[in-house]
Amino acid sequence: MSAVWPVSRAAVRRRRVQTVVIGVVVLLSTTMIVVALGLLAASSGPFDQAYARQSGAHLVASYDPSKVSDSQLTKSASAAKAYSGPFAMATLGQGLNGNFGAPESLVTVGRADPGGPVDRLNVWKGRWAAKAGEIVLNRNPTASEGFGAPTLGSTMRLAGQTLTIVGFAYSVSQSADAWVAPAQMTSLKPTATQMLYRFAQAATNEQVSAGQTAVTSGLPSGALVGTQSYLGLRALATGEPNTFVPFLMVFGWLGLAVAVLIVANVVSGAVVSGFKHIGVLKSLGFTPTQVMAVYLTMISIPAIVGCAGGTVLGNVLAESLLTRAFENYGAEGVTVPIWVDVVVVLGVPVLVALSALLPSLRARSLSAAEAISAGSAPRAGRGLRVQRWLSGTRLPRSVSLGLGLPFARPARTALTLAAVVLGVTSVTLAVGLGKSLTTYQTAASRVDAVDVSLFAPPDNGGPAPNDPQAPPAPKLSDAADEALIRSTPGAVSVTASTDLPMRLAGTSTDLRVSFYRGDFEQLGYRILDGRWFDGPGQVVVSERFLRQRGLAVGDTITLQSEGKTVRAQIVGKAMYNSGDEVLSNWQTLALVAPSLRASLYEINVKPGTDLDAFVQAVQKGDSGLMRTDGQDAGTFVAIVLATVVLLTLMLGTVAALGVFNTVILNTRERRRDLGMLKSIGMTPAQVTVMVVTSMAALGALGGVLGIPLGIIAHRLVVPAMANGAQVAIPAFMLDVYPWSLLTLLILAGILIAAAGAYFPARSAAHTTIAKVLHNE
Amino acid sequence: MTEDLGNEQAVVRLTAVRKEYGESVALDGVSLEIHAGEAVAVMGPSGSGKSTLLSMVAGLDRPTSGAVVVHGDDLGSLNEKGLALFRRRRIGMIFQFFNLLDDLSALDNVALAAQLTGTSAAHARKRALELFEELGIGDRRNTYPAQLSGGERQRVAVARALMNRPAILLADEPTGALDTRAGEQVMDLLLDLNQIGQTLLLVTHDQQLATRCASRVIDFVDGQIAGERSLERTS
Ligand SMILES: Nc1ncnc2c1ncn2[C@@H]1O[C@H](COP(=O)(O)OP(=O)(O)OP(=O)(O)O)[C@@H](O)[C@H]1O
Ligand SMILES: [Mg+2]
């Protein structure tokens, strides 16, 4: 092997374009993979770990104690892998003097022991409730304690009784808001019985449903009141990041696939253009295996350097990305898990080596005698016929010769064309993915949909989000405020709204329901299915809301708040990300909280209206209205968009470099032809034009073939990604390729190919004929 | 210079060697012997099979039938790896178009041959440098092939071929790409080598090269030996 190293090292040093291209391609792909894998791992990691530690419930079920007895429940629960319960349960109102920041109603469960086979609670502060008069509240230890949140030792009134808070516990299963001793529970008049189950398999909705069927099959009908699946919680906990991780993953995989193809292409190019090199090595006495080793080493050195650099870069990028993306969700200093680095550092070089293996094997098996005579006698054939036909056309001679050049060496040309098609396809796909995702995100988060928003701070004691010290209150009534805004010059549409935390019956997760009045069609929401609400008891929800709860447009849900219950029909599906936000109208609010006033006015104005002047004009009428920031892209979204743009650029660069390398190799190989053409009287300029023409034509052809492939790939990939991300992508978001963009892409293909050809062609054209011919 | 196998023993022995490339027959029943210390020139029209003959002797390709024995090794019994090992120890080759490795400096091109046989890089460079001085190209050692003149390149190629003290030096049109003066320098070099005992097998179109360097000329026509003459060297 001692002779392999000097040859490989020399090739790495002297074939600079090849080395740099491989290094950069691998570096960028590795970066993409680390970012994508890092996001994927981090988005579900904390939740899954906590769930495993607590042996969290895969299914939380509540039963009607009047229909099913505890012993029946215990008996049927043996179908599960493990269970806890039955526990008595009650949903208790706190009264409206309530503590700000605490839920309006408390799902309270009587439990003697925080441990047990399922849902082992983490009592992180204080102790467990041992006797009557004590209560333990459910709270995430990392959650920030809101203003006025209950503290240890303080008391609270529940169902007419005063209870002392003796501890805080955390249930990842979200099985209850509070726990009391069983003795205490009896006096709180339980209305339901809770069972907590773990199943052998609970990775999919089907598996959880199957488990649910198994544990409820023998029970009287109507006994089961409500359930909550672990998968829904998981989706909620991992939240918004999960929408985008699948998208980012696609970029990562795409980057990897493109890197593999391009490395294979670069190595093939090196082998094809290195026939003579291989022949010489063999004639010197390199064994076939040594020849293969030379080619593998030549590729591996820049690949390993690129991989190491990419891993570092990817970690830096992913870490700042993750820390910012997950800060709302209580995670601090999120880093890329070590397994990602290990997988990448080991996996990427192996992949690169594998992609280099096929062409290297070819180098290995090439017959020495053939290899060494390769290139000394170009074969005549079809190529010449094409060239003869081209010379008969009216094109300038250098152009027609240039167009004929690719046909002289069909194998080499096919390789170049493959590189161009690959490059154009991946750039097309990347640009399309980036555009679809940005379009989706802009629409879903309603960026810039509303010109100005005015906030009417609630007067019921709660501090305004912007100024907790001195909350100004609106001076006019709700209706008068709306009339005031509508009559202010410039106003085009006004939507009034307010929010209410509500609960979907049978679950213990809070929904945020927004009730709208006025021109809600102008808010920027896009209805994907069904229609807007037009009467009481109607809601519009997101795709994710439907998916997580197994519902469809047309179904009816039960919403609860402050002891009031309202049944509402899902009349439409709108485009937004959140799975726990529900849109409704003022008529529906009237069924729940008729006295509530609007807290937000979203206004669109005539184009050209001065927004500051408009706001001042309104505030002259009611100084209690405050301007707030409208919907803007949140930090996570901004980060995702930046990442997508970055990844698209990276992928584009990678593809372009691959093309560039192949074209350079190809043109270099032709130096001999160029010398020959000059020897028959072509000027250097003509030679350059000729070579650039031939490669530009290849670029154009590659564009014509690659763009449709990219568009097809985009049409296949985007819906699949959307499905994985539990979002609905309307058809218009697939139409991201206007003619201007397609033209731009083709031009880019031609430009990259022409640039790759220009430099070597120019240098070949300007070296003296003798030298060129001599050098071969 | 070479290991002495006795004057009587042939360094190269071909027995009824036939080589076909698909339909065409490049070598058609060639039998010949080359003895240690001989300088043999092969002449003949283009396409008559001269280069093919060299490929057979160098173990770069295998005959369709017949046997090739070089320095006691029956090439037919060697696998690809065995052939590579055979080449690096026993064969030195010179080509019309030099076939140097463009990525390596002149000196490293030559040292590489020794490194292949397990010599350390430092030792290989030292021996290469000695050869460079002997061949009068010592000052060009750190130059890359692209910057060398044709004659200089061919001398580097000769140095590389001699590096492992081959049993036989094979040269395929070694002056074919050189002008008269550079060609003569290479001819002198080959002659000198033969005079200190290097066995030589030379393919050429050049009558002058043949008569100057070779003691025996084999004429090839259509893949067959058409005749053989012994020569009085002119120099
Ligand atoms: N790799 C090959 N594949 C097919 N045919 C080949 C191959 N190598 C040689 N030939 C054929 O074998 C015959 C002999 O070729 P060879 O190269 O030995 O001739 P040559 O005597 O060296 O000619 P020249 O003086 O032109 O170099 C020719 O007809 C040639 O076309
Ligand atoms: Mg020949």
From TrEMBL, chain A:
**Chief subcellular site?**
membrane
Q: Name one GO molecular function term.
A: transmembrane transporter activity
Annotated region described as Disordered, given as residue ranges: 455-477
One protein family per Pfam: MacB_PCD
User: Which positions fall inside the MacB-like periplasmic core domain?
Assistant: 413-619
**What InterPro entries has UniProt attached to this entry?**
ABC3_permease_C, MacB_PCD, Macrolide_Exporter_MacB
Q: Does the keyword Transmembrane apply?
A: yes
Q: Where is the composition biased (Pro residues)?
A: 465-474
UniProt domain ABC3 transporter permease C-terminal: residue ranges: 249-367, 647-768
Kindly state which keywords UniProt assigns to this record, in alphabetical order.
Cell membrane, Membrane, Transmembrane, Transmembrane helix
The subcellular location is:
Cell membrane
What is this protein called in UniProt?
ABC transport system permease protein
Q: Lineage, please?
A: Bacteria, Bacillati, Actinomycetota, Actinomycetes, Propionibacteriales
From TrEMBL, chain B:
Any one GO MF annotation of this record: ATP hydrolysis activity
Q: Which SMART domains match?
A: AAA
User: Which segments does the entry list as coiled coil?
Assistant: none
SUPFAM superfamilies the UniProt entry points to: P-loop containing nucleoside triphosphate hydrolases (SSF52540)
Keywords, in A-Z order: ATP-binding, Nucleotide-binding, Transport
Task: Identify the residues that the record assigns to the ABC transporter domain, covering every copy.
Answer: 12-235
InterPro entries in alphabetical order: AAA+_ATPase (IPR003593), ABC_transporter-like_ATP-bd (IPR003439), ABC_transporter-like_CS (IPR017871), ABC_transpr_LolD-like (IPR015854), MacB-like_ATP-bd (IPR017911), P-loop_NTPase (IPR027417)
- List cellular component terms (GO): membrane protein complex; plasma membrane
State which residue ranges cross the membrane. none
Q: Which Gene3D superfamilies match?
A: P-loop containing nucleotide triphosphate hydrolases (3.40.50.300)
The family database entries (PROSITE patterns) matched by this protein are listed as: ABC_TRANSPORTER_1 (PS00211), ABC_TRANSPORTER_2 (PS50893)
The protein's name in its UniProt record: ABC transport system ATP-binding protein
